Amino acid sequence: MSFTVTNLTCQRGSIPVLEGVSFSLQPGTALVLRGPNGSGKTTLLRCLAGLTPPHAGEIGFDPDEIAYSGHSDGVKAQLSVEENLVFWAAVYGTSDIAAAVDTFDLAPLLSRPAQFLSAGQRRRVSLSRMTLTNRPIWALDEPTVSLDGENTARFAAAVNRHLDAGGAAIIATHIELGLSQVDTLELAPLKARLDHGIDPFLDGALT
Amino acid sequence: MSFTVTNLTCQRGSIPVLEGVSFSLQPGTALVLRGPNGSGKTTLLRCLAGLTPPHAGEIGFDPDEIAYSGHSDGVKAQLSVEENLVFWAAVYGTSDIAAAVDTFDLAPLLSRPAQFLSAGQRRRVSLSRMTLTNRPIWALDEPTVSLDGENTARFAAAVNRHLDAGGAAIIATHIELGLSQVDTLELAPLKARLDHGIDPFLDGALT
Amino acid sequence: MSIWEFANPKRFMDATGPLIPVLGILAGLSLAVGLVWGFFFTPDDFRQGSTVKIIYLHVPSALMAINAWLMMLVASLVWLIRRHHVSALAAKAAAPIGVTMTLIALATGAIWGKPMWGTYWAWDPRLTSFLVLFLFYLGYMALWAAIEDADTAADLTSVLCLVGSVFAVLSRYAVLFWNQGLHQGASLSLDAEENVADVFYFPLLVSIAGFVLLFVVLVLVRTRTEIRNRRILALISRERAA
Amino acid sequence: MIALLRRDLMLTIRAGGGFGLALAFFLILVTLVPFGVGPNSDNLALIAPGILWIGALLACLLSLDRIFQLDFEDGSLDLLATSPMPLEAVASVKAASHWLTTGVPLSVAAPLLGVLLSQPLEAAFWLTCSLILGTPALSVIGTFGAALTVGLKRGGLLISLLVLPLYIPTLIFGAEVVRRGADGLSPATPLLMLAAITAGAIAMLPFASAAALRTALK
Amino acid sequence: MIALLRRDLMLTIRAGGGFGLALAFFLILVTLVPFGVGPNSDNLALIAPGILWIGALLACLLSLDRIFQLDFEDGSLDLLATSPMPLEAVASVKAASHWLTTGVPLSVAAPLLGVLLSQPLEAAFWLTCSLILGTPALSVIGTFGAALTVGLKRGGLLISLLVLPLYIPTLIFGAEVVRRGADGLSPATPLLMLAAITAGAIAMLPFASAAALRTALK
Ligand code: HEM
Ligand SMILES: Nc1ncnc2c1ncn2[C@@H]1O[C@H](COP(=O)(O)OP(=O)(O)OP(=O)(O)O)[C@@H](O)[C@H]1O
Ligand SMILES: Nc1ncnc2c1ncn2[C@@H]1O[C@H](COP(=O)(O)OP(=O)(O)OP(=O)(O)O)[C@@H](O)[C@H]1O
Ligand SMILES: [Mg+2]
Ligand SMILES: [Mg+2]
User: How far, in whole angstroms, is CA B88 from its chain's centroid?
Assistant: First the structure.
């Protein structure tokens, strides 16, 4: 069993940001998306997560199999860290947040209202949500933003544990994470792909 | 001439997040703030920039000498990149955005509405604002978040140029930037400072 | 020793602790005397019958509703100028009491209005001003409730209280301009011809004194509660950070 | 779903006031009307049902743009959309929590405010009835409007532009119930219409809202 | 300062509608009133000045929470606060741009809408006068309310709770001008009061707003 994507095309506006993306992801490996700013990493992840429908091509798995975490944290400022986690646990049908708390050592922050967290602390809360979802594929968009060295290591350990348990991960990042089993997908800069327009309004010359 | 800070104490809520911070920054050098998540880097920068009044201690320079850039980008989604830059240029009394555009190679993005930028592209716009301010000290809070390798290098080059021109910089970051002239200020984790309360409500036992 | 020393929470607690029972007893006594005297030992008015006796609740509560706002204004100024925490908390503590007084005045007035004017509510300028005052109280309290950080809340509510006071006075004049009313004039002013007779007057004074004392006691008690709350919050946030 | 409802209620209450806020706005609005219109109580009684209903409508309106906006901005909406909960359920729950924090308190308090506008007491009962029946429709329709404008930076006014025309039938029947009630006529027909609108809105609009959300997140 | 004004106007216009939006809301509100109150034109004429003024007030209100909120959320407000521009100037410019996009179009359009409410034509002139004189005060006061609630997650309703009581004097004098004008009395006194309130608010409140902003950013 593996997760495959064939010949995927994703658009933003009317521009084909990605074209012909194919990969096959084995359980137990992480796919690292690399590419310069604006090359389409976020676009690809949102498409895989089912937020943007693909323009062409096929995604060989269900949106239900993928847990997404984007550039923004999705942490509610007025709720405490614990309330945030309990809410997401309930949404995913569990009530056990202990694993999530341990992963990023959130215990001391549990009762703190999220609005009083520092940027890195908020990021930790956001990432710990992943372990609550119980989904096989983690799709993470620059997860280590604002994290210090220690917490980056914690994050890598969490991903490794997820991989060891037979999960998979797709991670867009600019840094080296130190994961155990890694494939890399390089995305070329956007310019390269601009000629292959599929905008119906550019199709054939208008009189 | 140098920029000095003596014995600074900054509070968040009623907690002294920072205590007794002192440093002296020579023109031409960058002060890199290091410390784990939640150690008070953001707090210190906001205090230096004049956004939070210090609780005690002295800042030996004017808020007018410092240009601040925080965790959020401050880029207006509905304006084009050019309009964003022109606005900030006008606020700082110039009308020349060419230098800013060159620093981060923004020329191809100039006419793009900012809401269609990727995270890294938006960050570049935000950072390029610094060169418009004409202020001697740059205070930057994790400036390289979301930047790819190439743009991180561009950023480092911009800071180096600012330093060479006799400017100074205070930069909170978790990564190695490759700046020419660097001092480092290590901030210890918060726990260490908790005993030194200055909260009037903790002063003496209440009846 | 200057009065500002009481701005220290601990000093304030120490000083007011023993005061409260004394003031409380005094307040209870004068309220009891004023109200019992007013309700049971004054003659019925020749025009208004026994309904006039509601005056012993109505007038003092109306006075205190206004005075509570004045006290909040002063306390807010003190906080803004001298940054004394107790002062900000006293303003916060006074608001719910003031709003209750306003409600009592409105309710007793409405009850009184039915026999006197044949309606519970009329858009008389004085009644209307009171409704407006009620709205100002609501806004002030809502702002306190909405802000998480205590000092920020103190700052912003103080600014609101200052600006609000100016506009409350403006509203009073605007309302007078808008409608001339049915309501009684001032009955306590010394020169007025139509002052109420002494039989009504003295119990009213006692009852007003009772309300003033009651207000002071309640403000002290609530300020002390707020101080304790702040202490708990400070301890909790220290605990959390550790 | 219950978790989401609980979270939303908690957020509303934390953010200061919760139930009280809509009510206070309603009170202020009712106070402002005589300032504008003049204090004559016969005039006021005449326009009371309409003003009370319009007031309820506006109190609903003012909290609409927060329904999805905050969740959109902090990324929670992306996360909800990728969660096991269908977006239709999200939209319904959001509407329910909006109704609980505005519609319910408004319905309960409206008769009291009627007194301020010299409304006869018999009308009070019908006012509450019509509001209880009508406000769910306001919340559901409003949620739809909020879904359409999520992500736009100018929620407030735009949303009212979209939503207020959709509110017209509810307003007409609602005010008519009260007017008939006050005049001693039978308010059965407008009441029935009101109930029909509410039932229809609850049954259909969450699908439209979910579709709008999906497009907005794209 | 002109740059900020231009930027704010541009943002408002880009975000869809700009000048038109407040106007459209005003129009809808005025249309709703007959639905609520009944179509009798004598009644309508009676309440027209008040309703038009309250409508203008609400149209102002609905765009208030966007004055600082968006700038706060995307970090621009931090940057403005550290820029050479004093926060007092920022507050004044924001109020000015709010006035230009709501107050001005409302004042111009109000007489037309008066016709919908069977208002006599003589009143139209005084309506425009009073709105032109009064709406700057609404914008400045509203900016103050927006500054108090910046950073709070429940702008909409809370802001109205804070701001509407402050609007009362303006509303009373404004509506009184129109009523007197319509009755052929001299509206000089309320007009003067209106001008005084506006002048006072413009002179003083930006300082209060700036103080509030400073605290909120802390
Ligand atoms: C909801 C209705 C009412 C409200 C909000 C109200 C409000 C007030 C207020 C604010 C005052 C204090 C004025 C001051 O000390 O300057 C007052 C005093 C007074 N009210 Fe009322 N009132 C109401 C109804 C009535 C009614 C129906 C009567 C009786 C006919 C009445 C008789 C008086 C009298 C005799 C005073 C004493 C005046 C003075 O000492 O200054 N009120 N009321
Ligand atoms: N609505 C849109 N219309 C046109 N172009 C868009 C739109 N949204 C995004 N883009 C462009 O699509 C490209 C891909 O953006 P995306 O956010 O996927 O990049 P990314 O790889 O995640 O970059 P980063 O590392 O900066 O986060 C960018 O060049 C961006 O400018
Ligand atoms: N209002 C507040 N009340 C109490 N504690 C707060 C408040 N705001 C921030 N803190 C705490 O103050 C500490 C310093 O926060 P700050 O944002 O300065 O950290 P930082 O060094 O910038 O961290 P990061 O690397 O994650 O950005 C954190 O531990 C944070 O939890
Ligand atoms: Mg990206
Ligand atoms: Mg930080």
Answer: 16
Average pLDDT over residues B147-167: 93
Q: Residue C50 to residues A198, C41, C44, C204, C206: CA-CA distances in angstroms?
A: 88, 11, 5, 15, 19
Residues of C in contact with B197 (CB under 8 A): 234, 238
- Report how far residue A99's alpha carbon sits from residue A105's, in angstroms, rounded to the nearest whole number: 10
The CA distance from E64 to E86, in Å, is 21
Counting atoms of ligand 1 from 1, which one is nearest the CA of C112?
Answer: 27
Closest CA to A119 of B62, B146, D35, C233: B146
Q: How far is C159 from chain A (nearest CA, A)?
A: 24
Contact list in E for residue B86 (CB cut-off 8 A) is 3
Cβ atoms within 10 Å, residue B64? 12
CA–CA distance, C168 with C116 (Å, rounded to integer)? 28
pLDDT for the residue C194: 47
What dihedral do alpha carbons D118, D122, D125, D131 form, nearest 10°?
-50
Q: Average pLDDT of B45-73?
A: 91
Please name which of E75, E106, E79, E80 lies closest in space to residue E91, comparing C-alpha atoms: E80
| C59: Cβ contacts below 8 Å, ≥ 6 apart | C187, C188, C204, C208
The dihedrals phi and psi of A66, each to the nearest 5 degrees, come to: -120, 135
Return the number of CB contacts < 8 Å for A and C: 10
Concatenated DSSP letters for A175-193? S----SSEEEEEPPPGGGG
Question: Could you identify the residue written with the tokens 């037309």?
Answer: E112
Burial of D2 (0-12, 13-18, 19+ CB in 10 A): exposed
Choose the mutation target among A43, A47, A51 for the interface with D, i.e. most D CBs under 10 Å: A51
Look at residue C201 and tell me whether its pLDDT is greater than 90: no
Calculated CA dihedral for residues E14, E19, E23, E24, nearest 10 degrees: -20
Question: CA of D130 to nearest chain E CA: how many angstroms apart?
Answer: 13
Rounded CA-CA distance B64/C75 in Å is: 34
Read off the pLDDT band of C193 (50, 70, 90). Answer: very low
Among A29, A26, A30, CA closest to A1? A26
Q: Which amino acid is at D25?
A: F
| Cα angle A117, A119, A123; round to 5 | 95
What is residue B167's predicted lDDT score, i.e. its pLDDT? 92
Ranges of residues in chain E with a pLDDT under 50 are none
Residues with CB under 5 A from ligand 4 (ion): A 42; B 118-119
Nearest Cα neighbor of C174 from E166, D209, B58 is E166
Q: Which bound ligand lies closest to the C-alpha atom of B34? A: 3
- Intra-chain end-to-end CA distance of chain D, in Å: 23
Integer Cα distance of B173 and B177 in angstroms? 8
What's the rounded Cα separation, in Å, for the pair B183 and B24? 10
Angstrom distance (rounded) from CA A13 to CA A11: 6
Please say if the pLDDT value at position D156 is more than 70: no
| CB-neighbour burial class of residue C232 (10 A; exposed 0-12, middle 13-18, buried 19+) | exposed
Type and span of the H or E element at B24:
strand B15-25
A15 touches A196 (CB < 8 A): no
Under a CB-based contact definition with an 8 Å cutoff, are residues D201 and E65 in contact?
Answer: no
* Phi, psi for D32 (deg, rounded to 5): -70, -30
Is any ligand 1 atom within 6 A of the Cβ of residue C195? no
Using CB atoms within 10 A of its CB, is residue D152 exposed (0-12), middle (13-18) or buried (19+)? middle
Q: What tokens does B33 get? A: 């703030």
Q: Residue range A155-183: average pLDDT?
A: 91
Task: Name the pTM for this structure.
Answer: 0.91
Report chain E's terminal Cα–Cα distance, integer Å: 23
Question: Residue A194: what pLDDT?
Answer: 54
